[in-house]
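Re: that backbone. Tokens:
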């Protein structure tokens, strides 16, 4: 099990997550990565409509970069939040759908325990619901902001979504990454859409704790909680790019920087 931390622009962050996914498939090693974004960035889900929904001139005027994730889900503003990613190999002898579902539950359970360590009343959502608790709703690759809806098994606090997560499976490995909200700036999505929207209230660490915890504090809680869940004798060690190069990283970076990928839908 490896633990790696890094930060970068949108294309660089998505390329590194994807490269680590392929690293996990090739080596059987799992990686936890906790990172920030160099500039405020909106990420679109893999299948989410964007071309006819978001106004590129408004995005530029608002100082927001854009990138499309390899994973599904809906739009997220990455700025006043902390992003995590986990890549893990999949055993070919176990049904992949079951393994991925179990992994999703395990990672979100770990997030809940780490957040509770900080004093956050985190829990797993029992079913799909809007953040305003206006009742269950269907979800899919729509233009709806990610934090508007909490799906079953996602991390919530006091009935509102706190962590948005998404997965992508490739070969014999799976990537799950997501955002932990420190402050609420998801409303910035409404200012750059072509049609007016009404943002839903979300949970943030500042509102729940009465303060904005340091990134190092959140990271330490995640790493400590992960370490406690590993088999006895298992150690977390940093990923060393010099020792374990990621040969496809630059190719993947070019892919995620390509506007045909970002704005193709």
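Recovered sequence:
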């Amino acid at each position: 099990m490896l633990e790696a931390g890094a930060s970068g622009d949108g294309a660089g962050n998505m390329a590194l997550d994807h490269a680590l996914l392929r690293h996990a498939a090739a080596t059987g090693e799992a990686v936890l990565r906790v990172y920030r974004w160099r500039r405020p960035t909106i990420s679109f889900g893999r299948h989410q409509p964007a071309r006819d929904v978001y106004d590129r001139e408004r995005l530029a005027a608002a100082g927001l970069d854009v990138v499309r994730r390899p994973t599904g889900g809906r739009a997220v503003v990455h700025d006043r939040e902390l992003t995590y990613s986990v890549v893990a190999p999949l055993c070919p002898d176990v049904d992949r759908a079951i393994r991925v579902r179990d992994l999703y539950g395990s990672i979100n359970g770990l997030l809940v325990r780490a957040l509770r360590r900080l004093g956050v009343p985190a829990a797993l959502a029992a079913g799909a619901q809007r953040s305003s608790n206006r009742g269950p709703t269907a979800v899919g690759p729509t233009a709806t902001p990610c934090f508007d809806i909490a799906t079953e098994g996602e991390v919530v606090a006091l009935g509102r979504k706190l962590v948005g997560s998404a997965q992508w499976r490739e070969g014999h490995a799976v990537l799950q990454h997501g955002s932990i909200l420190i402050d609420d700036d998801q409303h910035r999505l409404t200012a750059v859409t072509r049609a007016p929207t009404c943002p839903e209230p979300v949970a943030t660490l500042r509102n729940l704790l009465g303060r904005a915890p340091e990134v190092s504090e959140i990271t330490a809680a995640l790493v400590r909680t992960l370490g406690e869940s590993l088999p006895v004798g298992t150690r977390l060690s940093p990923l060393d790019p010099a020792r374990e190069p990621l040969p496809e990283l630059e190719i993947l970076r070019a892919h995620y920087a390509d506007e045909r990928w970002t704005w193709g839908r």
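The chain has a mean pLDDT of 86. The first strand starts at residue 2 and ends at 5.
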